[in-house]
Design goal:
The structure holds two protein chains of two kinds. Chain A is α/β, with parallel strands linked by helices. Chain A has two domains: about 190 residues, D-Maltodextrin-Binding Protein, domain 2 (3-Layer(aba) Sandwich), CATH 3.40.190; about 210 residues, D-Maltodextrin-Binding Protein, domain 2, CATH 3.40.190.10. Chain A has 18 helices and 15 strands. Chain A has a five-stranded mixed β-sheet. In chain A, strands 8-11-7-12 form a four-stranded mixed β-sheet. In chain A, β9 and β10 form a beta hairpin. In chain A, α10 packs across α18 and α17 runs antiparallel to α18. Chain A is globular, with a radius of gyration of 24 Å. Chain B has twelve helices and no strands. Chain B has a single domain, classed as MetI-like (MetI-like fold, Orthogonal Bundle), CATH 1.10.3720.10. Chain B is an all-alpha fold. The radius of gyration of chain B is 24 Å and the shape is globular. Classes of the chains: A alpha/beta, B mainly alpha. The interface between A and B is medium-sized, with 33 and 26 residues.
Chain lengths: ~425, ~300
């Protein structure tokens, strides 16, 4: 009887042990919610299905400073996730926290990740301090784009022979003429954007600075070393103060575009999915098109479009370093995600992985294929610890840029005050 | 074992959980913060000992000075108005004859207090949304353009203050109501016979007798509002133009955005000492006023 009871309980324990060792649990953290968050979950589900011995549990955290604070603090106490998505602009700032597990070129090659498959700017951004290592493997490049109501643009006679909107490019004056033409056909506020959100404002503003011949940062001059910032701010503010664009507005700007109240909407590529859905269901009410940000410096030979880059990293913890088994699985995930990222492109992100970016299918993907050439004019924020998503720059701009573009303070005041604060932060770093 | 020893052991055993959590989650982190404030530590890990450098830097930091000023402005907007509004509403509820209606009205005023701050944020962002917020209809009805309350340089601080008062006044009403219920109604009857009107009754009976509760509410409000963070973090992020940058938001910024753990600890310690001094000063001032009234 005693033997029977022991055998019974042993078999129960063995049964659970068998189940426990059959599947490796992997924790994944990211900060992509909304439409592209759903797509990312679909990708994770597909990976799990393809790999029955691995189960990724994906957690989406709040976007911005909370995500990075949690990631770094969890690494400090040894409770870090096994893999995470990370904005590459933060690498310079975060290096000192030892949060990155360096991935060698050989390790990445073993899962099919090779330097030559990536556009150099993206690959170089993810490099580790040690030669031949990567801290973050590029995955995508979220970009701010222009969403167009092509029906209204056609009505205003602003669509060129290629079906694009080159009439609105070349110079700020040409852009304004475009908006005037839209006003003439009864579009009260031709353009909309999140003018109450510092991030969204900044991400187009930074392109404008470059297009107007300026820089936001130089080593010698610091923040806004020339007239570019002032010109860009004045131009942006004029759109609001002269009635082309609603001021101090958030998500309603997007809803207004969907309702046909605005001909142009500034938003990320990540905002495309719901519009594409409506367009395919014929519930949108207008013909939809997208493009990279208009090149207002083209007449002066300046082409520029700001881009982010994000990628996969394996968090490091001195207290509880990742096991070799889980590290190999993390590398496997990175390799699989790279090979299957065409689906991720449907979320509106530019893909810096050449086999995908140069494929026929990616270039036929509607509507994001219309800005497939953004890689040629894309630039990142400078490689300095003061930059980076959710970093000091964003905090300072959060206080000043919204007022500046809404005409509440002058461009000079904006530049002066941000220079003071940002340069003080840099001096203290 | 003697009875006294047994009782002592029982007492200590019952207190032990509190002492443990108090020590682990308050005393130890506080001591850690004190030590940290003398180093150049980042957010995670230790740095080098730098003595009083952080404190010297603090007193030269213009943003710190601005954050102190903003905190006091916020206290000015909230502490006394919150107390007065709480007292007035409590007096009105106290006058309701039907206990059922009084309880219902009290529940309505107390309901906001149980909301988490994130729900409060979503609610007021929705109400004040420029294109579609209900509050904007009222603004437009009076002939004004929609106001981005939490982004406006003049409105941001008052708007957060009003939201805070709406959110927290229920607790004050509860305290005042408890105090008002303790006043013997015969005093009011006697005063009516002597010809006292409502104003006389409030000035010479209600206010003096409710003074200890008022002092408590003022002290609690002062402590709570000096520690303001949640609403600023959610509604304004310290803007616009740092006009709502309060001290604890400055601490958060230094620690979690600029990774200056040591400096943030120094600011936190200074604020802690300041709040202790202000609370003690407030207590003795109000106590002196109370003794003065009794004389």
């Amino acid at each position: 009887m005693k033997k029977l009871i022991i055998s019974f309980f042993s078999s129960i324990v063995l049964l659970f042990s068998f189940n426990a060792s059959a599947v490796t649990e992997i924790t994944w953290w990211d900060l992509y919610g909304g439409g592209d968050g759903e797509k990312l979950q679909n990708m994770v589900d597909a990976f799990n299905k393809d790999h029955p011995d691995i189960n990724i549990t994906k957690t989406t955290q709040e976007w911005g400073p909370p995500f990075y604070a949690k990631l770094e603090m969890s690494s400090a106490i040894g409770e870090q996730p096994d893999i995470a998505l990370y904005h590459m602009s933060r690498i310079q700032m975060a290096k000192g926290t030892n949060v990155f597990t360096p991935l060698t070129i050989e390790e990445l090659a073993s899962v099919g990740i090779h330097e030559e498959d990536y556009y150099p700017a993206y690959w170089n951004k993810g490099k580790g301090d040690e030669e031949g290592t990567m801290y973050v493997v590029p995955y995508d490049s979220p970009v701010v784009i222009f969403h167009w109501n092509k029906t209204l643009m056609e009505k205003a006679g602003l669509v060129d022979d290629n079906g694009l909107f080159s009439t609105c490019e070349g110079s700020p004056e040409k852009f304004i003429s475009c908006l005037d033409a839209l006003k003439a056909i009864g579009v009260e506020q031709p353009i909309s954007g999140h003018t109450d959100n510092a991030y969204m404002v900044y991400w187009w503003w930074i392109s404008l600075v470059k297009q107007m011949g300026g820089e936001i940062w130089t080593e010698e001059g610091g923040w806004c070393p020339d007239e570019g910032c002032k010109k860009a701010t004045e131009f942006y503010a004029s759109l609001v103060t002269e009635g082309y664009m609603p001021g101090n507005i958030g998500e309603d700007s997007y809803n207004g575009f969907l309702s046909g109240n605005h001909a142009i909407h500034i938003n990320g590529g990540w905002a495309m999915s719901p519009v594409i859905e409506k367009s395919r269901n014929a519930t949108l009410g207008f013909e939809y098109a997208v493009s990279k940000v208009p090149q207002l410096g083209a007449d002066n030979g300046i082409l520029a479009a700001h881009a982010h880059a994000s990628g996969f990293m394996i968090p490091n913890s001195d207290k509880n370093p990742i096991s070799e088994e889980k590290k190999q699985i993390g590398l496997q995930i990175i390799g699989w995600m790279a090979k299957n990222n065409l689906y991720w492109a449907t979320a509106g992100h530019y893909i810096p992985y050449k086999p995908t970016a140069e494929s026929l299918m990616y270039n036929a993907l509607w509507p994001s294929s219309t800005y497939a050439d953004i890689g040629e004019v894309a630039f990142f924020e400078p490689d300095h610890p003061v930059f980076g998503i959710a970093g000091p720059i964003y905090d300072v701009l959060g206080s000043w840029i919204i007022g500046a573009v809404n005409g509440d303070i002058s461009a000079d005041e904006f530049v002066e005050n941000t220079q003071m604060e940002i340069n003080a932060i840099v001096d203290s770093m | 074992m003697s009875k006294k020893l047994r009782l002592n052991i029982a007492g200590w055993a019952l207190m032990f959980p509190f002492i443990f959590f108090f020590s682990a989650f308050l005393v130890y982190p506080s001591l850690y913060t004190v030590v940290h404030s003398f180093t150049d530590s980042p957010l995670i890990g230790w740095g080098n000992w730098i003595g009083f450098e952080n404190y010297v830097k603090l007193f030269k930091d213009k943003l710190f000075a601005k954050s102190i000023k903003n905190t006091f402005i916020f206290v000015g907007w909230t502490v006394i108005p919150n107390t007065i509004i709480g007292l007035m509403i409590a007096i009105m509820i106290n006058r309701i004859k039907s206990p059922m209606y009084a309880a219902m009205i009290l529940a309505c005023f107390f309901l906001p207090h149980i909301l988490p701050v994130t729900v409060l944020f979503e609610l007021f962002v929705s109400l004040t949304r420029k294109e579609s917020g209900s509050i904007q209809w009222v603004v437009n009805f009076f002939g004004y353009e929609s106001i981005p309350f939490f982004k406006h340089k003049l409105w941001a601080m008052p708007a957060v203050s009003i939201v805070t008062i709406w959110w927290t006044v229920g607790f004050n009403i509860l305290l005042f109501l408890a105090g008002l219920k303790m006043i013997n109604p015969e005093i009011y009857e006697a005063s009516e016979i002597d010809g006292a009107n409502t104003l006389h009754q409030f000035t010479f009976i209600t206010f003096p007798l409710i003074w200890p509760i008022t002092a408590l509410v003022l002290t609690l409000q002062l402590i709570f509002q000096l520690k303001i963070f949640d609403q600023m973090y959610l509604f304004t992020q310290g803007g616009p133009y740092n006009k709502t940058m309060v001290v604890l938001y400055h601490v958060y910024k230094q620690a979690f955005m600029l990774y200056k753990g040591g400096y943030a600890s120094a600011i936190a310690l200074i604020i802690f000492l300041f709040i202790v001094l202000v609370s003690i000063g407030n207590y003795y001032t109000l106590r002196y006023v109370n003794l003065d009234k009794q004389q």
